Amino acid sequence: MTTLTTTHEEIALGVRGAAPVPNLRDLIDTHLHMPFPFQWNPHESEAAAGVEAWLSRWGLTREPGVAAMIARTRPAELASRTSPTVDSGLLQIVANQIAYQFVFDDRAEDLGRRSPGRLLPMLCESIAILRDGSPPSTALGAALADLHRQVRARCTPAQAARWAWKSREYVHGLLYEAVAQAQPFLLRTGECTSIRSLTAGVEPFYPLYEAAQPCELAAAELHSPVVRRLSRLSADAAVWTADLFSAAKEQRAGEMINLALAYQRAHRCSLQDAVFLAIQQINGTITEFQRLYLEIEPELSPAGVGYMAGMIGWIRGCYDWSRTVPRYADAASVPAVP
Fold it and tell me: Stretch 110-115: mean pLDDT, rounded?
């Protein structure tokens, strides 16, 4: 991976060494290594209408702030850009899941900020639904139960089980995040990235890309060390790229679990310099992904190649969505140089 600079002077020199750009978004565009082409799904508008209807059906958009948050977040747009080749039915599940996770994440953030213990009823309900098929007791739980039903209807039992397992990891990650937020001075960079890998909520989507293939992947292919490493790299690259664009918003809100903000704490540098450091780590991650994929691609089945396309979709799709979504509009108003 790329060697990271460690002093404020070196970081600032690296930022100024390139042609000047006006704002943080342009700084990211200039320095981020993004080798994969832009794509979008032609069923995006259908998925957007479906998300609105699905959230309304379970009463989530009647809760304060949810409708406005969804308008700023555009879940169907993220689904379209991360999943450009899936059929309309699977795209709808992806879009519904993205919308659900944003609602769930914002609720957890609000409760966890007051006390990690306040999260327990919400998280325990989710685990019971995902692990045991327990009946829900809240509107959010009912939406999760319906999402789980949609996944089971589309996926094989093994794929649905992997989806539920990865979704439980995401739920647990939100509790770790709340604990870390309550003890901010004890949070180290490695712990931040470990928690971020869970709260990213990217890997729960990968079993859906298994389901998009014409046949199931062989176990030896799906669970090979290289494919598992590629899964980790793609999820990290995707969510860390979103962290670049959300850093200003999250800094203002006092959030801690963000790659750029972790570098800012570790190096006691400006937000702009921290973003530049984070870009270096992301570039190294994407470069490693490219190298490993080129090595293993000749050995993959057609289904394996299709599955890997889903991982690539998240790397590129998160970038395209993050740079234009209203939720992260602050990146265009922060100057590129501190």
Answer: 89
